[in-house]
Amino acid sequence: MSDLIKEEELKKEVEEKFQNSLTESNITRKNRIWFTINSEKAIDLMSFLKEKGYFHLSTITGFDEGENLGAIYHITDYKTIVNVRVKTPKSNPKLASVLKVFSVAESFERELEDLFGITIEGLPQGRNYPLPEGFPKGVHPLRKEVKLEELIDKLNKQEEK
């Protein structure tokens, strides 16, 4: 008998419910499941997971794959971590806010905007986070094309003004 019964059952349920929207589903080890889903159905998947007892969004991790940017939503029931990966084209990066599902998401979503330049649709207006006010506009320091030396030079020039 497998020790991954809980993980296998959830994976099967998600695959059946979101079969046309998933591009990947994996159990990488005990208590760790990964789903990659198109952005239009991501909120639906997260709502479904919350209904199944995965009620805590522990963090959101941004990523840059070159042509695509995206986010990994780390959702847990305090035993199993479900990672939901969502991609968006770098040419027009937009993701829907998950605040209606997970009210703790605001600071994580602000990080995606500041550090990766992903527009979070539905995120209320607020201050920059974690970048300071006055940080050069249009510079998103965790994108692959941003070079540390160039960023330091921009910051130094701005400080001289």
Q: In angstroms, what separates the terminal alpha carbons?
A: 67 Å
CATH C-level class is Alpha Beta
Quickly count the helices: 4
| CATH fold-level assignment | Beta Polymerase, domain 2
CATH architecture: 2-Layer Sandwich
Strand order of the largest sheet: 1-2-5-4-3
- Give helix and strand order, one letter per element, not per position: HEEHEEEEHEH
Count of structural domains: 1
Largest sheet: 5 strands, mixed
The average pLDDT value, as a whole number, equals: 92
Helix content: 25-40%
Structural class by secondary-structure content? alpha/beta
The oligomerization state is single chain
DSSP strand tally: 7
| CATH-level-4 superfamily name | NADH:ubiquinone oxidoreductase Nqo5 subunit
Report low-confidence residues grouped into runs of 5 or more.
none
What report would you give on this structure?
This protein is of the alpha/beta class and 161 residues long. It has a single domain (5-134), classed as NADH:ubiquinone oxidoreductase Nqo5 subunit (Beta Polymerase, domain 2), CATH 3.30.460. It has four helices and seven strands. It has helices spanning 5-17, 42-51, 106-116, 148-160; strands spanning 22-29, 32-37, 56-64, 68-76, 81-89, 94-96, 119-121. The strands form two sheets. A five-stranded mixed β-sheet has the order 1-2-5-4-3, with helices on one face. The protein has a two-stranded parallel sheet with strand order 6-7. The longest helix is centred in the first third of the chain and has 13 residues, at 5-17.
